[in-house]
Amino acid sequence: MAKLTLRRLREEVEAVQAKIHDDQASGSTWAKERSRMEVQYKLLSEKYEEAVTANRDAQGQQVTLLSQNRSLRARYMRSRIFLTIVLSKQKP
User: Fold this and answer.
1) Measuring CA to CA, which residue among 68, 70, 89, 90 is closest to residue 78?
2) pLDDT, tens digit, for every residue of 22-66?
């Protein structure tokens, strides 16, 4: 009877040790995965910030180009009006 109890206790100890070993192994795997995910998150965050900055720059350029376009249209219209006046004065 003592041998059965001792054998059963040893089996339980081995089972617990195996479980602890498995938990430690999976824990280190989890830690590696977490570290990898944190690196990916950091890279994605940096890329997002770069994209936001590029978008702001592009919007600024659009505003500048629209302003230049309005200015050129206004000059063109003034030139056409001036040309129309000059040509109308030249006709007898």
Assistant:
1) 70
2) 777 677 777 788 888 999 999 999 999 999 999 999 999 999 999
* Unique residue bearing structure tokens 């070993």: 21
Question: Rounded to whole angstroms, how far apart are CA atoms 74 and 71?
Answer: 5
SS3 letters across the chain: CHHHHHHHHHHHHHHHHHHHHHHHHHHHHHHHHHHHHHHHHHHHHHHHHHHHHHHHHHHHHHHHHHHHHHHHHHHHHHHHHHHHHHHHHHCC
- How far is CA 50 from each of CA 41, 44, 56, 64, rounded to the nearest angstrom? 14, 10, 10, 21
pLDDT tens-digit map of 54-79: 999 999 999 999 999 999 999 999 99
What CA–CA distance (Å, rounded) separates 61 from 29? 48
